[in-house]
Amino acid sequence: MRFKGINDLLAAGLRKGIAGIAMVMLVGIVGYRLIEGWNWSDSFYMTVITISTVGFGELHPLSGLGRVFTALLIFFGVGLMAYCLTRLVEFLFQRSLTNVLGRRTMMKKIGQLKQHSIICGYGRTGSRVVAELQAAKKPFVVIEEDADIVKRLDEQGIPHIAGDATEEDTLEAANICGADSLVAALDSDPENLYLTLTANGLCADLRIIARVHDPESSRKFHKAGAKRVVSPISSGASQIAQLITRPSVVDLIELVTKDKNIALQVFEYPIGEESDMLGKTLAEARVRQTLGGMVIAVKHPDDRTAFDPGPDTRLKLGDTLVALRQPETED
Predict the structure, then answer these.
(1) End of a domain among 73, 108, 143?
(2) How many domains would you assign to the chain?
(3) Which one, of 146, 62, 153, lies nearest residue 102 by Cα?
(4) What's CA 55's distance to the chain center, in Å?
(5) Over the Cα atoms of the chain, what is R_g?
(6) Same domain, 137 and 55
(7) Which structural domain range is residue 196 located in?
(8) Do 216 and 274 reside in the same domain of the chain?
(9) Would 252 be classed as within a structural domain?
(10) Does residue 1 sit in helix, strand or coil?
(11) Same structural domain for residues 75 and 127?
(12) Among 53, 99, 123, 125, which is most buried by a count of CB atoms within 10 Å?
């Protein structure tokens, strides 16, 4: 923000200098026209060579008043030219310094990220994912190769790395081994598949979520290491079918997950080695009193999910509780 303010001041000074030169040019042209009676072309040329101090001779002999006018034109013109040149150099230097320092600061922050998400590709899918992560205040970094999109990310202040997401060096720059998840949302299925293989090779425990265009490719992505495979075509068709067969259920899910005003929140609670709930049943763990929510499912380490678990369900290491609660409100 500090560098942006300095750039704005320098740009404003440069604009004022250019406006001053234009004014001196106008005064010079009109002055030679009125004082010496020269035509517009000669007046313009004489004004230019006078202000720029190139050292050419006079076009026509000058009168006494014309010489005084020329001297004043040189004084003000040269001063303004020097002012503009100084501001231009400062502006260009400051912009370069801002870009270098800003980029260095961003890369330092990215290197310090932990349990963050890596979004590969800032297209329609990637940009929507970023918007949701921003709303949830979850740390993330975007990897994008397109120069125009990278420029837009710079302008929006979104943490990003410019490069090919399928390259190991780029993924390591995004601190992939410290990340919680990676979203493969590149333009094509082959690119996403190669990205999945590369990311899984670098960090086998990483939760990779891959977007596919062809639903029949899902099996390949699972073999490559993707934990979840999302097909917009398949998901869209499934949602349409659900809207026809079970519209009330879909409406409830959309209210809970999408409506920002509804007072319900779906959250996850992992059962780790230090959890007080480890080895206890849901009844013994007193989940409602401890977490302030109602358990609607238990996800097991083998990817099985038990919906509407009973009170005798015993919690094991690696289980994840999926619960529903009212979010905390600020006074």
Answers:
(1) 108
(2) 3
(3) 153
(4) 52
(5) 33
(6) no
(7) 114-230
(8) no
(9) no
(10) coil
(11) no
(12) 125
Cα four-point dihedral sign 299, 276, 180, 106: positive
Per-residue pLDDT of the chain (331 residues; tens, 9 = 90+): 444 444 565 566 667 767 777 887 888 888 888 888 888 888 888 888 877 777 666 777 778 887 888 888 877 777 777 777 777 776 666 665 555 555 667 767 777 788 899 999 998 889 999 998 888 888 999 999 998 998 888 888 888 888 899 999 999 988 898 899 999 999 899 999 999 999 999 998 899 999 998 888 888 999 999 998 888 766 665 656 665 666 665 565 666 555 555 556 777 888 988 888 888 888 888 887 888 788 888 888 887 888 888 888 899 998 998 887 766 654 4
Domain boundary among 60, 76, 108: 108
Distance from C-alpha of 261 to C-alpha of 259, rounded to nearest angstrom = 5
Ordered strands of the 140-144 beta sheet: 160-162, 140-144, 117-120, 181-184, 207-211, 228-230
Question: Quick check: is 254 in a domain?
Answer: no
237 domain-assigned: no
Task: Please tell me whether the overall predicted TM-score, pTM, comes out greater than 0.85 for this model.
Answer: no
Burial of 147 (0-12, 13-18, 19+ CB in 10 A): exposed
